[in-house]
Structure formats: C-alpha cells, structure tokens
C-alpha cells in the first residue's frame, strides 16, 4: 500500500468526482499540478468529503489527474493493441482468508479466481475482463506486474490500483513499450479495497 494514508473516494458522489477530474483536465492541471490542485480540492471540498488532511488530499488528486492524463495520451495506441492483460489487486477480494477459493499460482504469480462469491469485486471484474478477451491476473502485489507483462508479451494492459501505484507503473510500461490504461481504486488499503466496475467497463 504505497500511500501512508487510507483514502475513500466512494464518499464523493460519482457525479462530483467525474466533474472534478474533467474540470481539472480541462484547465490543464495534468501539466501544471501543485498550487492549482489546491484550488480544485477546495472548490470540490474533497478534503472534507474524504476526511484527509489537505496535503494528503492534494497528493492523491495530483496522482489521479496524472493517471487520467496518461490514459488519454495512451488511448489510441491502447485501442490498437492485440494482446491485452487486466491486472487486478488481490486486496479487492471479498475474502482475504480461506473463504476465498482462489488458487494461488506462484509461478505466474496470480490468484486464479474460482467465482465463489457473486458479489466479490474480483469475480465481477474478472468476468468483465474475460468477456472482452483480456487475460486476467489477480496480483498479490504491484511488483509482480513486470514478470507477467514480460512473459505474456502483451502490448496493452489495464491496471487497477491506487493512484500512486498506477503513476509508478507508467515508467515500467514505457520501458516495455506497452500501452496502459489505469483504473484507480476508489478506496485503498490492505483489504476491502474498492473499485468502480462501471469505470472499469468503460476503460475495457
Ligand atoms: S470470487 Fe474469486 S476472488 Fe472472490 S472470494 Fe471467491 S475465489 Fe476469491
């Protein structure tokens, strides 16, 4: 969990967060991040909604805006990719203990979801990805992505993670010449994390 704080963007109405990121992008905050982000954070009361302090909120929003910008820049190339992978975080599993029936394949490495819980986000995200022809991996940690992407010879990848992890992945994708799209977790942490399935479906 790269952030030193827990965020929960599900407390912000989806309509407001969409407006927030679109406004930020339109005024070019992906190029001029910093003090202007503070203005947007205050205007949309993001710190109040999340309960985070202003410094953490600004760091979070800067990362999310960077990911949005990278998605737009890479979209055309991503659309042309032939072999695509979907990387999901294991912390979004409904159960993190023996109730999760997934097999862990250490050699890949990935959890192989057995679809044991209909309401499990990983089950639903896996179904979405496979229906679109993606190879789906449920990663035990972000560091596993490189091995999977190298071995699979992918030219496109969708990653679901917190904003900081997605931002850190950009240089890896550049070095591997893979077009990426990021979907940020709407709630981070070591377990019970949350992702927006509608956002994922739009990206896929
Ligand atoms: S649906 Fe998949 S990931 Fe979720 S608890 Fe069951 S096996 Fe684990």
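Sequence proposed for the structure above (204 residues):
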């Amino acid at each position: 969990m790269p952030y030193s704080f827990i965020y929960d963007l599900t407390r912000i109405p989806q309509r407001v967060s969409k407006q927030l990121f679109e406004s930020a992008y339109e005024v070019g905050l992906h190029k001029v991040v910093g003090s202007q982000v503070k203005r947007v954070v205050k205007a949309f009361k993001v710190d109040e909604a999340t309960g985070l302090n202003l410094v953490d909120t600004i760091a979070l929003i800067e990362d999310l805006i960077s990911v949005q910008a990278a998605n737009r820049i890479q979209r055309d190339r991503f659309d042309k990719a032939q072999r695509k992978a979907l990387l999901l975080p294991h912390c979004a599993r409904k159960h993190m203990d023996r109730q999760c029936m997934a097999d862990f394949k250490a050699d890949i490495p990935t959890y192989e979801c057995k679809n044991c819980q209909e309401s499990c986000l990983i089950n639903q995200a896996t179904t979405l990805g496979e229906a679109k022809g993606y190879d789906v991996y449920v990663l035990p940690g972000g560091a596993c992505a490189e091995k999977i992407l190298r071995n699979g010879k992918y030219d496109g990848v969708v990653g679901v993670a917190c904003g900081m992890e997605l931002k850190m992945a950009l240089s890896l994708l550049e070095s591997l010449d893979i077009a990426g799209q990021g979907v940020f977790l709407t709630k981070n942490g070591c377990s019970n994390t949350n992702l927006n399935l509608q956002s994922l479906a739009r990206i896929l």
